[in-house]
Amino acid sequence: MRRKWLRAAVLGACTSLAALLLWGSLGGEDGITEVLAFRSEVLPGRFIEVPCSEDYDSHRRFEGCSPRKCGRGISDAVITRDEARRIRSVAEKGLSLGGSDGGASILDLHSGALSVGKHFVNLYRYHGKSGSKMMRTSWAVGRWYFGDKIQTVFSEEDFQLYRDVRQKVQLAIAQAFGISASSLYLTKPTFFSRINSTAARTAHDEYWHAHVDKVTYGSFDYTSLLYLSDYLDDFGGGRFVFMDEGANRTVEPRAGRVSFFTSGSENLHRVEKVCWGTRYAITIAFTCNPDHSIADPALT
Ligand SMILES: *[C@@H]1O[C@H](CO)[C@@H](O)[C@H](O)[C@H]1NC(C)=O
Ligand SMILES: *[C@@H]1O[C@H](CO)[C@@H](O)[C@H](O)[C@H]1NC(C)=O
């Protein structure tokens, strides 16, 4: 009887040890050293300052806007869960008209570029005959010729929602970096992304490479991401990772969570591959250079 108990105890200890080792090796394997924002947290706002890189020196400087203070902010208080749900419906609606053959689809709200198969189509370009019927309905951009169907994609309400969200994010960035919101301008691209676990087919699907936004897009000074899905509820993988020297620091997506950061090399980052489910987000970036500003996407 006693021996049996002992054997059970030893067996139990071994199982725990094995589990611990497995957990330890998994924890090490994903290379994550710190979580800046857990999915389960509701952050009123967290700001982490990092020293600015020299990337801004090779661009024209706009005093009172170009980063002197660099860093990262995360907030769950800028956009409500309900706003996130509504803007996600807009993303779903737009992206449902296309979709990359690979796992990453985008819809650029400024240019109207939408992933379809291995290419992009322009959602905003008019197709079909010009004429009175066209004129009468010309308030609706995004009428898109698909087969024989002409569809109205976005409504004025959808664009209004985008503008509200953009404005709130702009204010949050200005506040965090101690600059005036009016010195920031929306810049391109600004887009919805939908990522699932399907393997990449073209370079456009390869979202997971480490990069610096200011190197990729020279106009960016401040980048923001608004998450529209929940990590581990809607998808697995897909965490945002700041790749610092000696540390990988993650932001776990949460619908309504805004993550923003200065766009230079001080914020080298990547997104983990999504391993299941679907991850929705919207990218909104700002420039200090009025020459690179774009108007809000709108009905034209
Ligand atoms: C991922 O999305 C693409 C469309 O972009 C679709 O064809 C594919 O079936 C999806 N994969 C999964 C695993 O849902
Ligand atoms: C950070 O992650 C990368 C893989 O993305 C890994 O090669 C590197 O060792 C990690 N760094 C640390 C400090 O864990």
UniProtKB/TrEMBL annotation:
A GO CC term assigned to this protein in UniProt: membrane
Key words of the record: Dioxygenase, Iron, Metal-binding, Oxidoreductase, Signal
Domain Fe2OG dioxygenase: 188-290
Cofactor or coenzyme needed: L-ascorbate
Annotated PROSITE patterns: FE2OG_OXY
Taxonomic lineage of the native organism: Eukaryota, Metazoa, Chordata, Craniata, Vertebrata
Signal peptide per UniProt: 1-28
Keyword Electron transport: no
Record-given protein name: 2-oxoglutarate and iron-dependent oxygenase domain-containing protein 3
MF GO annotations: dioxygenase activity; iron ion binding; L-ascorbic acid binding; oxidoreductase activity, acting on paired donors, with incorporation or reduction of molecular oxygen
InterPro entries according to UniProt: OGFOD3, Oxoglu/Fe-dep_dioxygenase_dom, Pro_4_hyd_alph, Pro_4_hyd_alph_FE2OG_OXY
The keyword Oxidoreductase belongs to this UniProt entry's keyword annotation: yes
Pfam families named among the record's database cross-references: 2OG-FeII_Oxy_3
Coiled-coil annotated spans: none
